[in-house]
Amino acid sequence: MLDVRRLRLLYEFAAQGSIAATALATGQTASAVSQQLAALEKETGVSLLERTARSAQLTDAGRRLVAHTAHILEAIDAAETDLAAESAEPRGRVTVTAFPTVAVALAGPIVRRLRRYPELQMVLLQQHTVSESLARVRSGEIDLALIDDWSGQRRPATTGPLTFHHLVNDPLVAVLPIKHPLALKEVLSAHELAGESWIASPEGEPSRMALARLWRAEGISAPVSEFEGLDTILTLVAKGLGVTVAPWMAAAERKDVAVRKVVEDLPGRDVYVVHRTASTGRPAVMTVLQALHQAARKLMTAAEQF
């Protein structure tokens, strides 16, 4: 009998195109991925990958098995949906992954709303990368993923086996030490902060690219200290080491920094929730999805009044 977990891994390999990318997307080592795929080859009795010293690609048999796997995963989703529909009350376990700043902002309202469903259990896991979360949704390892997108371009509602729901646009705000002189103002311009020391994520990170767009548009050049993680950056701002711009959801509930509106039109980040299209009929998944929508709307109402 073929191991479904290994089939999911093969399916992800087909989507990613390499063992290294599959390892990154699934949060495993390249060695572990290679071993699992080799074990699947033993189960099938045929070569699924054509390996060279530097790469691997699907054989004809591998491509056929990937096609079968797509139907298998759809059938598993259909079976879960069919059985879940027997009960009008949402029940069971729904696994969600999210990046920390959104998890903290939305977790409270979601948990309170879901208390009315005693047989429904939501498990919230920390997201490491968007690609990893999408891979885990595709493979069926998790049910829903909260992801952010800094491109400024709306994603299509359906991409392959996945459905994307746009939750909110999370605006960018200026974040300063509480005792900074400019914290006395309610609204700031980027030029007022041009001479400050800035704290930002490393080059290549999505939030840094958004900051770079702002600087280019306003002709700003400023000294930057680079750190990974929005929470780390905001903590350093609180210690008086510099200023930054950050998504409102990441900074709004912090009491140790001053959060101010910015005059410039900053695109911010779009937040989506993603699930397998085949899961659309599962009451438990749809209940959590609805709770996410409602929590996000409530939060953004507060942002508009900020």
Provide an overview of this structure:
The chain has 306 residues and is of the alpha/beta class. The protein is 44% helix and 23% strand. The chain has a six-stranded mixed beta sheet with strand order 4-3-5-14-7-6, with helices on both faces. A four-stranded mixed beta sheet has the order 9-13-8-12. The longest helix has 25 residues, at 60-84. The radius of gyration is 22 Å and the shape is globular. Residues 2-59 form the HTH lysR-type domain. This is DNA-binding transcriptional LysR family regulator.
List the helices and strands and how they pair.
Layout lengths: L3 H13 L2 H8 L3 H15 L4 E3 L4 E3 L1 H25 L7 E7 L1 H15 L5 E7 L3 H10 L4 E6 L8 E2 L2 E9 L1 E6 L9 E2 L9 E3 L5 H13 L5 E3 L3 H9 L5 E4 H4 L5 E6 L6 E8 L6 H22 L2
Parallel strand pairs: 3-4, 3-5, 9-13, 10-11
Antiparallel strand pairs: 1-2, 5-14, 6-7, 7-14, 8-12, 8-13
Helix pairs in contact: 1-2, 1-3, 1-4, 2-3, 2-6, 5-10
Tags for this model:
single chain, 306 residues, alpha/beta, 6-stranded mixed beta sheet, 4-stranded mixed beta sheet, 10 helices
Class computed from helices, strands and strand pairing: alpha/beta
Tell me the series of helices and strands, N- to C-terminal: HHHEEHEHEHEEEEEEHEHEHEEH
Number of strands: 14
Helix fraction bin: 40-55%
User: Low-confidence parts lasting 5 or more residues at pLDDT below 50?
Assistant: none
Continuous helix count: 10
Alpha-carbon Rg, integer? 22 Å
- What characterizes the major β-sheet? 6 strands, mixed
Q: Strand order, biggest sheet?
A: 4-3-5-14-7-6
Terminal CA distance: 57 Å
Share in β-strands: 15-25%
